[in-house]
């Protein structure tokens, strides 16, 4: 899953990015509000972690611009502004959640999981298809009740496909979900990971839609 982090404090931003990467998120990090506005225009994200006190453009202005364009991306405000007035302003501007600094990184991860889960219209914390169960909180994957060991990229690809069960996912969409800025991708990276998942989860678990991309196979 690809996350946009908007934080102008270099030390804090580096720590948040590292913590989210350990939780298997691909993280794009920008340090001012104008860069955030442009990133949100040009890229698809699963969620945004947004500071309020930003150079060039305030976080509330970034959020209002996002919502005025009809973008329903889950946004978690992460800020030192802890007054009730600031929280009300952020939530009324369109934020989905509000967390004040200092904070616990595990709580931030849990709140992101909840936001992404609600965005896909699911009340359950697990993703399931054809006997395969993925638990985002623990990153545990089972097939017919038996544990399946996946690499970080394999897990990320599986999570993306399970989160879009009724959609065909193009190669570019999958690459956008798997890789942050500056991370090198090979010409056949997605195909390699699809091959690995088929070997571990069954040859028919992922089907190739010729000329379009990939989709989960029939659940029967």
TrEMBL record:
Residues 124-218 bind DNA. The modification 4-aspartylphosphate is found at residue 51. Coiled coil: none annotated. It holds the Pfam family Trans_reg_C. Gene3D superfamilies: 3.40.50.2300, 6.10.250.690, Winged helix-like DNA-binding domain superfamily/Winged helix DNA-binding domain. SUPFAM superfamilies: C-terminal effector domain of the bipartite response regulators, CheY-like. Keywords: Cytoplasm, DNA-binding, Phosphoprotein, Transcription, Transcription regulation, Two-component regulatory system. InterPro entries: CheY-like_superfamily, OmpR/PhoB-type_DNA-bd, Sig_transdc_resp-reg_C-effctor, Sig_transdc_resp-reg_receiver, WalR-like, WH-like_DNA-bd_sf. Residues 124-218 form the OmpR/PhoB-type domain. Residues 2-116 form the Response regulatory domain. GO terms for biological process: regulation of DNA-templated transcription. This is DNA-binding response regulator in two-component regulatory system with QseC. It comes from Candidatus Accumulibacter aalborgensis. The lineage of its organism: Bacteria, Pseudomonadati, Pseudomonadota, Betaproteobacteria, Candidatus Accumulibacter.
């Amino acid at each position: 899953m690809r996350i946009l982090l908007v934080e102008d404090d270099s030390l804090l931003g580096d720590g948040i990015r590292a913590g989210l990467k350990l939780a298997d998120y691909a993280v794009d990090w920008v340090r001012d509000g104008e860069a955030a506005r442009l990133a949100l225009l040009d890229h698809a994200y699963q969620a945004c972690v947004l500071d309020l006190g930003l150079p060039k453009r305030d976080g509330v202005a970034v959020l209002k611009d996002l919502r005025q364009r009809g973008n329903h991306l889950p946004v978690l405000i992460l800020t030192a502004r802890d007054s009730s007035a600031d929280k009300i302003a952020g939530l009324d501007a369109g934020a989905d959640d509000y967390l004040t600094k200092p904070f616990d990184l595990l709580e931030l991860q849990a709140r992101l999981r909840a936001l992404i889960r609600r965005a896909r219209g699911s009340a359950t914390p697990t993703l399931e298809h054809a006997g395969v169960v993925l638990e985002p909180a623990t990153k545990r994957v089972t097939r017919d009740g038996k544990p399946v060991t996946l690499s970080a990229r394999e897990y990320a690809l599986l999570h993306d496909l399970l989160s879009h069960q009724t959609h065909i996912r193009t190669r570019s969409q999958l690459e956008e979900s798997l890789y942050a800025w500056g991370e090198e991708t090979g010409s056949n990276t997605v195909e390699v990971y699809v091959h690995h998942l088929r070997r571990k989860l069954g040859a028919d678990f992922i089907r190739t839609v010729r000329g379009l991309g990939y989709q989960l196979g029939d659940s029967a």
